[in-house]
Amino acid sequence: SLKPAYTEEANVEFRSDAVSRSKKEITRISQNVGGNIVARIYPEGGSNKVGLGLFLKYLMGATNTSQVGSSPTYWHGFPPFRDPFSDCPGAIGDKGISVHVNRPTICSDVRNFPFQGCRVSGLTIDQDPNAALQMTVDLFGQQALANQAEIGSPTYSTIAPFRSVHLTAKEGAVTPIGTAPNYIGFTTAGTDDLSLRSLSIAVTNGLVDQIVLGSQVDYPTETDIGVYTATITMSALAKDPASGWSSIDTYEKWISDTDVELFFEWDNGVVIAGGATYKLVVHLPKVHITDSNITDVLEGENMFNMTGEAISSSVDQYSIGLFVQNSVPSY
């Protein structure tokens, strides 16, 4: 749903337009691009980068990569970067993402509609039962270019997308491996397994594009950094079992103003090398519950619903940890 947007000003002159009492002309002043992309989340392999890792890099501002042993397996972390658009080592700098959309036009002729100089301002991960994992990537950018020749022979992932059966969801204190914020793995002993009906995790970075004087162009050339915000929404049956995770207990933590730690891992079981598999990991070390309720019904089961906001952890040095394991050497 990417689309161009324009700022325009109307001109009305007292003398020449006095009779018609109408606008004489409308002048286009500036332009930009905004919208989102909705896609399944696929594991990435080799040179085949199908979106997730690159979007996470441009969302958080940096990538920390380590090789898993001597195998062609790589663990990528995406820690928040203080000034992602500077010339500091590891920063994105002045790079942007260009999005190319192939669209059929007249007589089934396919043309490429490019959107230039995009930044990633937000990313939402949605998981429903019996469904593929889905992401919505929010973008803004500089300008839409005139349509061009089709980009032929697109490359698709040869690995099936992550889906609900691949998800392990946990509440409780996990044990990171390595040094914060650049962890290289986690152990989850002593945590409780969540049994969820729906899950949505949204991350925004507060970026704002700016048009600046002296640039001599009519589109944004600078981006102001903002505050990272991560929110989570999940639902489950309202249950209080004798052992294991209790949604009732989590509801009571909202009443008592107690934060929770949440951990989610998608592992498709496909071996890269040496037993290592493709993974997506989301770690929320400190979630402040902002809203929760239990819906009472006459037929069926009562449902538990929760919304929370991730708070920065001084130990982990992030509010949300985002990690992928795959066979991509670098982003």
Summarize the structure in words.
The protein contains two helices and 21 strands. With 331 residues, the protein is mainly β. The relative contact order is 0.18. It has a 17-stranded antiparallel sheet that branches. A two-stranded antiparallel ribbon has the order 11-12. Helices cover 5% and strands 48% of the residues. The two termini are 25 Å apart.
Question: Topology of this structure?
Answer:
Layout: E1 3-11, E2 25-40, H1 52-60, E3 64-67, E4 74-77, E5 97-104, E6 110-127, E7 134-141, E8 143-144, E9 148-149, E10 167-171, E11 175-179, E12 182-187, E13 192-193, E14 198-204, E15 208-210, E16 222-224, E17 229-237, H2 247-255, E18 260-273, E19 276-295, E20 303-310, E21 321-326
- Largest sheet descriptor: 17 strands, antiparallel
Radius of gyration, Cα only, in angstroms? 23 Å
Poorly predicted runs: none
Q: What structural class should be given to the helix and strand makeup? A: mainly beta
